Amino acid sequence: MINVTAMFAAAAATVPVGALWYSPVLFAKPWMKLNGINPKKKAKCGYFLPFAATFGTSIVLAFLLSLLFALLKITVLVDAWKISTLLWFGLDFMPNLTRALFAKKPVELVLIDSGHSATNIIVATGVLMMWK
What we know:
It is a single chain. The chain is mainly α and 132 residues long. The chain has one domain (4-130). It has helices at 4-21, 28-35, 48-71, 77-103, 107-130. The protein starts with a helix and ends with a helix.
């Protein structure tokens, strides 16, 4: 059974993770440099769509994790983190690393972006398991 409240709480918990991750405190400057973004230039399209898409993908992530934990009958936080980390490594990090290598993009960019994904998965998993 999927707890919808827990799912939305897990999605909401990833928002401050992203805000901190891509802030000047952590990785904003290297991320912008690696992507060729000039921080002094104003964005053309605004930020509503990227932020809305981010929250939408966080809801999907929380739903899929909830479904997986229910199907596998995972009720222990450490077990949930193990399976979540393995899935992140195989389904996020490795494909992103491969694409970056073929596109001749910096591995540092993969580490920043995929590290953000891993942190979101860890946080969402923690929230979901606390609601069990």
